[in-house]
Amino acid sequence: MHYSPLGRSGLQVSRASLGAMNFGTSGHVASCDEPEARRIIDAFLAAGNNVIDTADRYTGGESEGIVGRAVRDRRDSVVIATKAFLPQGDGPNHRGLSRAHLTRALEASLRRLDTDYIDIYYCHQWDYSGTPIEETMATLDGFVRSGKVRYLGCSNFTAAQLVEAQWAAARAGGTPFVALQPQYSLISRVIEAEIVPTAQRHGLGLMTWSPLGSGVLTGRYKENVTPEPESRMGRLLASPAPQANRWARELLTERNLRIAEEAGKVAAELGTTTAAVALAWVRDRPGVSSVIVGPRTLEQLEQNLAGLDLDLPKELAARLDEVSQPENGPVNGLPASAA
């Protein structure tokens, strides 16, 4: 099993992280009941992986509860990551990155996870409500000093926001972020221009999410072919919610499907799957410490782990680099090939 240090820290993380967003039966995105989630967690840890990623908002808190029960007897060998920001109530102080909300959210996550500490505690997104970043970073530093949190991270921050947060921590002599969770895949490379170089300069390891482009990079969808009604994109396109329909159309673009097609050709040459190729490509990018996969079934987990073990030759990685360049031209922050 291959482990990497998480950013500028001594925490060793496996190349695969288990995303627990689908664990539970509450909410619209839930699709994995507790018995199946337990099988997935058991198989993931048995394979030598050690990071499980959840959030207080996932399935109304049910995800955290499932993870906590599943790892109770092996807690010290598991790296648990969770997040706070999203609403946990109707009041104005039940959301965001204020000291009031973060303190309440941390205590609630500790209860649901049935643990004394959280290994990586993330700010789920930037707080635009006016909370000073100095207040957020001081509060998080207090969590670390209390022993309730061991490492800090952020999700979906811009490059400028990363710098502001790290500077705020440094000015106060506090604890900086060592992890960043960005969206990253062959069809979503926008972070390469500014966010990846900034994260590397400031000591943050990337724990990437949506490496399969919401399923587009599985090879299931083809240009000029209507998605099957039972598929994820089929359900979204049929949804009465305009936002869901629009999101699906934005994913199923000619460019994205062309990238998926090329990943499929590479997969055929290697005798593997399109998804495996897409996962291996993300795994090998600069600054990536771990790739978050979010299986709903044990079979999906096994396929994902096989992809993260795939040896992707340099020349094939270069082909994928070329076909997946952003539409506004090559990125400025990274070399053409990360191999």
TrEMBL record:
InterPro entries in the record: AKR (IPR020471), AKR_Detox_Biosynth (IPR050523), NAD(P)_OxRdtase_dom_sf (IPR036812), NADP_OxRdtase_dom (IPR023210)
Species of origin: Solihabitans fulvus
Lineage, highest ranks first: Bacteria, Bacillati, Actinomycetota, Actinomycetes, Pseudonocardiales
UniProt keyword Oxidoreductase present: yes
GO terms of molecular function: oxidoreductase activity
Record's protein name: Aldo/keto reductase
Listed GO CC annotations: cytosol
SUPFAM superfamilies in UniProt: NAD(P)-linked oxidoreductase
Keyword Oxidoreductase found: yes
Keywords: Oxidoreductase
Pfam families found in the cross-reference section: Aldo_ket_red
Residues covered by the NADP-dependent oxidoreductase domain: 18-324
Residue runs in coiled coils: none
